[in-house]
Each structure stands twice: as C-alpha cells, then as structure tokens.
Design brief:
- The complex is a heterodimer of chains A (244) and B (390).
- Chain A is of the alpha/beta class.
- In chain A, 53% of the residues lie in helices and 11% in strands.
- Chain A contains 10 helices and 5 strands.
- Chain A has a 5-stranded parallel beta sheet with strand order 2-1-3-4-5, sandwiched between helices.
- In chain A, helix 1 runs parallel beside helix 10.
- Chain A is globular, with a radius of gyration of 17 Å.
- About 6% of the residues of chain A have low confidence.
- With 390 residues, chain B is mostly helical.
- Chain B contains 17 helices and no strands.
- The C terminus of chain B is likely disordered.
- At the A-B interface, helix 5, helix 6, helix 7 and helix 8 of A face helix 4, helix 5, helix 12, helix 13 and helix 16 of B.
Amino acid sequence: MRALALVLMLSAMAAPARAEPAGCGAPAELLDAQPMPGLIRAAGRGTPLRALVIGSASVTGPGGTGPAAAWPSRFATLLGMRLQPSEVTVEVQGGRGLAVADHVRLLAEWLPRLRPQLVIWQVGTIEAARGVPRDEFAEALRNGLAAARAAGAEVVLMDPQFSRFLRANADVEAYRDTMRLMAAAAGAQVFSRWSIMLGWAESDRLDLERAPRARRTALTDELNDCLARALVEFVLDGMAEVRR
Amino acid sequence: MTVPLPPESLVRQGRDLRVDLLRGIALWLIFVDHTPGNLLGWVTLRNLAFCDATEFFVLLAGYGAGLAYGGMAEREGWAIAAARVLGRVFTLYVSHIFLFVLLTAQVGFSAAALEQTTYLDELMLDPFANEPYRAMLEALLLRYQPAFLDILPMYIVMLALFAPALALVGRPGVLLLLSAALYVAARAFGLTLPSWTGSGWHFNPFAWQFLFVIGVVLARLPSELLGRRFPWRWWIAALVVVVLAGIAVALNLVWHAPALGFEPPALLADAFWRVDKTSLHPARLVSALMIVWLLVHLVPPTARWVGGRGAAPFVLMGQQGLAVFCAGIFLSFLGRLAIEASSGLPMQLAVNFAGLGALILVAAISAWYGRGGRRRTPASLPSATPPATA
C-alpha cells in the first residue's frame, strides 16, 4: 500500500514532465497574488524564510500518508527548491476541530515566538459547517489578521477545500465572501483553495470525493502536493509582483 | 405536465398584483439561492446589493399579513384575528418541522453517496450522527436550525409577535414606533433568541420584525397618503439609482478585484464586513426600502404587463406564498442532490427549468384547490394573503 502510494506520489511529482502548467494546472488567475514585499526583504537578508501555518485538520494532512505529505511541509520543500540558496522553514500549528478563535490564540502565541515573514492561515471550513455567526467569524479574522500584519508578516488566507457535500449543506459562499472582505480590509490575500479544487474536480484532474477507496490515500497525498505547488506559484507571483 | 387551467385564469384579481409579482420573484430567488452550486445564484440580488430576496420576502409577508389580518381585526375584532394568526403560526411550525425532517434525510443521503469521511468528519454537519435525540429536541425547540433552514423559524416568531401587535393595527404610528424600538434594542443590546450552539439565531426575529411591521403599516395606510408622503422626484430617483449602483460596484470590487489583480480600498472592505444579515443592518434595511420605492414608482399599479401572461406565473407564485416557499425549499434539496451528481450546463438548465416549472405547478394546484376549498367552506384556510374580495 505504502509502495503504491509512493509510486503514485512520484508520478504526481513528475507531472510537470507531462507539460502540465505549474501548480498542477490551476487556473493562472487563481495564482495571481498581490505584491508581498515582506518576503523579498527576508530573502535579501540571506536568513531562512520563516512561514507559520495555522489551520484546522487539513494542515496535518488527514487521510494521507502523514504530516510530511501534507501541504504545509510539501510547500516548504517546494518553495525552498525554488528559492535556493535561501531556505524555507515552516512551523505548523493547528489540528482537528480548531476553529477561528483557536487560530487567533495560536497566532498570539506563535507570532512573537517565531517572527514569521509569511503566515498562511487556513480557515473557514469548520465555521461554515457549524454555521458560526458571520460577524463573530469576521471579528476573529480581523483580530488575527491585524496581529499578523502588525508583526510584519505577509498573510495568505486559505479558504475551505472544495467539497460537493460541504457546498450542498453549508452556506460556504457567505463565509468565503467574509474572508475576502476581511483580507482586503487588512492588506492580506486569499489563496482560493476552493476555486482551485473545484477546477480540478470539474476537469477530473483530482476529485477526492469520487475517488475509489483503494486510491484515496494516494490521491490525498497528490492533492496535498498539488495544493502546495499551486501555493508556491501564488507566493512566487507575490514576490515577483514586487519587482515588477 | 399540464396545468388544469392557464396560470392567468388562476390569478386572483382585485388586488395589487405588483405585490404578488415581487413576492413571486423573491420566492423564486430563494429557491435559487438555496441551491448552492447553481450558476443562476451568481446573478441574484445578493451579488449586487446589501439586501437579497429575504428582505423582500419578509417585507411582503408583513404586507400580506397587514392586509389579511389587519382587515380581519378591524372587521371582527382583535381576538378572532389574533387566533387566526396563531393558527397560521402553527401551520408554519409544522411546515418547518416537515422540511427539517426532509433536510436531515437529504444530508444523510448525500453523506452516504459521497465519500466525505476523510476530511469532513470533523465538521459536525450531521449532529444526528452524534446526538440524535438531542438534535431532534433542539429542532423542535427551533434552537437547532441547519444551514438554509433558517427563514421559517424567523417568520414563525415574527408572526407570533404579530398576534398581540394586531391590537395596535388601527394605530400604525404607535405600532411602527414600538417595532423600531425593539429593532434598535435588538441591535444595541444583542437581544436575540438562543441557538443550540450557544450563539444567536441566524436571523434575529427581534430585528427582522421591523421590516415585517413596515410591510404591515404599508398595507394599512391608504395608498394616497403613501403617495403624498413618498412622492416621485426625479432627483431622489437619480440619487437612489446612483447609490444602489455605487454599492453594487463597490461590493463586487471588494469581493472580486483582488483576484483580478488590483487592490480595493481597505476602507471599503472594512466598512462592508459590518453589514450583518443576522440583525438586519440598517444598510440592508435602507437598501431594500430604496429598491421598493423605486419599483413602486417605476411600475405603476396600472401597468398592463403585471396582469399579463408573462408575469402571471410569478404573480400566481406570489399569491400562493407558503405553499410555494415550502415547495421551493424542498425542491432546493432535490436541486442540491442533482448538482452534487453533476454541475455541468445541462444539469444547471435542468435544475432551473424543472425547479421553476415545479414551483409554478405547485402555485397553480394550490390556487385551484384553494378556490374550490373557499367555495365549499368559506374562510377555512387561514391565509397571509387577503381574500379575493379585498
């Protein structure tokens, strides 16, 4: 099983050889970022780029082969390869069932300790599913974003994973709207995992919900890898925007 | 699928058909907005304004209640009218519980049909899996309201509040003042009803009742008086159009401009997130009233097309409000299952055509049946819409 997963993962990593656009073919407009000057300054100093990842279960890569295959560590590895000789380190804080208020507490704890240049904050899924009042959600996002921006970090909000089940049974769009608003108000950005995964599902590129059980672990790893690749393109675009 | 009679022959005449038309459109939009993944959902009002179909549904529910029960209170006394209102409240409650049971079945079906355990198991989307008896009790107490099943509970409480308020129906000024006071108190002190999860209701009935009462008062005041109070002025209309268009542009700028590569002003975004739907932010309230003012003046009561063949299906839907609303929510469950299975263009077209067609059919059957029922046992059907003689 593990071997199969590894083979599939390797074939997924070799995907660019099949001339797929960078970021596993995620639409280019979803990988366009606003300038991220904070990352350029960090890269210029020659010290490792420190990224803090905050989120709920998906940061630990449930359903895959383990944390090493989850998107945060794949992201650090892939971005490190692209930014050589600069190094990229990632601190992952989060877990199953942690919602926005917990994330804000984690930010308060880890921002001063790590002083990250980049914060990736995955949020919105649990809130939408539980129907957390939107003004509470907005208020918590506002506090967390303000703290991260005040600490000098570039902030990328990552919205929920696309899922037909979630789409049908929770008012996801309303929460995504709130995330867009709060990001715009705080000078942060939104990496739309939802739209990217929707594209993959509709083009049959990657569709976890319809995957046969036997392939699910491998596909989960591939999904995490592809999300990391798309996120790397997004962040590199944000860095390139500064130079433009 | 043949309708026993053409829709226009089922339309009840002798009333302001513009109200029914607008209500019918609102009911249709509620169906569309309750079918996530529906591409039509991207062009409904909520993408262009602070308010959406909910505001119009509530305002027109108030208008209908004002006509029907207000008139009844004046003719037959407060007690009878209030008892009728409570009967209606019970009908709404039973409808809500019925829809709740259907929704629970749909969620269960979806969960089984799609593999979601790997990454949605943490979500508590299905409290029935964890605490079935508690969930059922909380649903009966209206403290557990799943997503998209939150309008009827608000309507139930608003109508229950309306029963005692009927005593004031002859004094619209006092009614409006008390209602405004409750609205302000609800917003200022966070006065609301509790939900199972520890927060308040998705729609705070103590805030939304204000819009309902505005509808009641609009129905009670003579139209000449309203015409004098809120006359047509070109410069006001121009101002309203500019404000509404400005909001539409600004909203879309904040939502979508970052993805297109330019940054909207942070100030705008910082102002917009405060516009809450839960307690009917004044910006939503004012937007809805501005749109109504514009529509009332742009579409005169004498407009021929409102009574014509094209508008008839929507007028009919508006006249059969509760049946169409419940059918719309039920159909949106089916729509979700369909869009879950495939979200391509053929399915989008099928869901929207079948959905609208079924809503019209439900309205036609309800109107046809209601007419028969009314002939046999007069006034046996409590209705938020006025009797045909109004």
